[in-house]
């Protein structure tokens, strides 16, 4: 259900924290980790992500290090 009080065109992390959670794939995680300009985004995503899918064991180890 979409809450009509929020403009969904904004980035998800601009919504109040209780209104969303994220899922991230290994491919997206690797992109954020390897891009120095995306480090702030990585930290915001890790704060809100609840599902990490299709990740290799190496990706999972890197995720634990990031947390």
Description:
- The chain contains three helices and two strands; from the N terminus they run βααβα.
- The protein has a domain at 21-66.
- Strands 1-2 form a two-stranded parallel ribbon.
- It is globular, with a radius of gyration of 13 Å.
- The model has no long low-confidence stretch (mean pLDDT 77).
- The chain is of the alpha+beta class and 67 residues long.
Topology (SSEs and partners):
Blueprint: E1 22-25, H1 26-34, H2 39-48, E2 49-53, H3 57-66
Parallel strand pairs: 1-2
Which stretches are poorly predicted, pLDDT < 50 over at least 5 residues? Answer: none
**Helical segment count:** 3
Structural class: alpha+beta
Major sheet summary line:
2 strands, parallel
- Return the string of H and E elements: EHHEH
């Amino acid at each position: 259900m979409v809450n009509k009080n929020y403009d969904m065109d904004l980035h998800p992390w601009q919504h109040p924290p209780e209104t969303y959670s994220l899922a991230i794939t290994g491919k997206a995680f690797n992109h954020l980790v390897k891009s120095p300009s995306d480090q702030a985004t990585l930290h915001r995503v890790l704060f809100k992500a609840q599902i990490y899918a299709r990740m290799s064991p190496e990706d999972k180890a890197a995720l634990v290090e990031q947390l």
